What we know:
With 321 residues, this protein is an alpha/beta fold.
Amino acid sequence: MVSKGRGAALYEAFLASQILPHAWEEWCGYRSQVTDYLIGNSKRGTSLAIFGAGRCNDLDLGRLLGHFSQVTLLDVDEKAMWEGLEKYGDFERGKGGKASQQLIVFPVDFTGITAEDLIAFAEAFLRVWDGKDPYSAVYKAEEILSGIYGKSWAYVPAFPQKQFDYTVALGVHSQLGSAPAWMLDAVGDELCSRVRQWENTDISSFFYWWQEERVNLFRRIERESIYLARQLNHFILLATKEKAFLGYELCRAVSRDGIWYAVPDSYVTGAWQAAEDLKRLDAGGSIHFRNYFDIVWPFCAAQNKAYRMMIMEAEIVGKKG
């Protein structure tokens, strides 16, 4: 039988997989260019909210605090944000999440999907491994996943204030649905190796059924990830007075002879659909999309991963109360 706490361990493994230990050093040039772009296209003395701030590896907070009157960091992982601030060395945790009068650290969930939800999903799949009733375990996991997404449809995040002059989100939209997909991938590979050890199970029949179910689950996760990405667009734009800078990693990128090229058919789920959503909103007149910054994001040298990042400027039409 699966030992108690294995789902939590799988969730912790997912969180660990999201940490890039050398990001601060490897993203130095990228961080400088993106910070330059943000400062060069915004007014001094205004407010900025960074959605999905994480460890703040992609923006130079020191320079931003010299330009904006107030900067608010927003992320589900409060610990990561404070760890990011440690690189600057002069911020201490204060009341109300304030690191200074200029800087606010505010933990907020953008999707309504909690750690407990994801652990329950993982636990359901891990029960498949004992081989006693693998079909029921998969159905239970699907039921939990449906409940998770059903809850997220009605979820509205609570931000520390109604609006900010400027907002920015870089590489966040594609991450909203990554946890269930990562867990399904990890558990599914292990399941295929373990099923051969089961007794009293029609292995060939289960394999055929499982492969089809696995594809269907990935498709469901992809559809929901697209919805979550568009919802995040909506929440960010509602929280913006002047302009939102929305960075989407559209596809993989490779370097040849010092020149970066986009990799065909390597689109990033959630990112390119969110970019198309922004174009749709522009066509409908609710925002003005006029400019964008095309840049390569050197995501992880150890994994040989880089992305074509397009930072789109969405100017808000009219004034909101």
